[in-house]
Amino acid sequence: MPPPPSPPVEVTRRAVLTGVSVVAGSVAAGCTIGRDPDGTAAPKPAATSKRAAQLDPDVGLAVAALAGEQAALDAIEAVLARHRKLRRALSPIKAAHRAHVSLLAQAAPEDYPAPTTPSLPSTSPDPFRVPPRREAALNRLSALELALSTSAKRHSFAAESGAFARLLASMAAAAAQHSVVLVPAASSSGSPEAAPQ
Amino acid sequence: MTPLEALQTTLAGEHAALYVYGVIGGRVSVSAEPALSKKIATAYTTHRGRRDQLTSMIRVVDADPVVAGVSYELPNPVTTQPQLERGALQLEQRCTAVYADMVASTSGANRQWAINALTDSAVRQISFAGSPVPFPGVAEL
Fold first, then answer.
1. Which of A7, A131, A154, B6 could bridge across to B97 with cysteines, CB 3.0–4.6 Å?
2. How many Cβ atoms sit within 10 Å of the Cβ of residue A9?
């Protein structure tokens, strides 16, 4: 009697992080390449990051994915600052984005220039503004999570490293889950909360 | 894992999913639990479509698709309504892991298929009373 599908047991956390470490390794390689021919001068960070991205296109994907995850985290923080009663509902979602940011930061060099095209399609061209009503704020977050999921799917599709693609696809799935659970949370969030000033 | 092996593994997963959903669906009371019954039926139809798609994707590369087993182990005791829903949730969690592995081992259209299946399965978990997790399908994180 064959068992139902289950995750391969040999997969480890280290294996999952292979994609991230490969990308991070390219960044380190870029630093080496960035040294002057005589080897005495310090590497130029901006130039080395660009070279790293040329070596491994996944570095650029990591930077774009990190920007999207950080934007979602910032949006949640902004909503919590105005709607404190949403803390319980948003706590696991905030923790998930923190975990994503922490992981992606290992693969994204700090000095890499921000992506020229927004990795996180917004429902409006303006920065995230927190609606005064809780229900509207949750709906806005739900739309943001859906856009983030779409963006992460594109990044996963484009990734050269299979392990990194798996990680990005999982993040896309997480954002899709968030988008779904935020809508019922909006409908049960009750009367509008007076925004603390 | 080669791309073909990933396709075959995922197809084997769909065979198992269809068997388990068939058992669960047969035990859900349509009159007492119409909402759960409908969700199970929708999930079954979705996985049946995926099985057929994977079969075609494997035949395109001149390989023989793996066949279904005679029977499969159920993920847990499935008798009461909560157990039935829990069984559907656990089944989708296992499918999500299989799709995630397929993402890692494929590229192009096949990877896109796996990404979409992974996301859909993760969202379906919510409909079976599941909670969001930081890394769906990646149990080791």
1. A7
2. 8
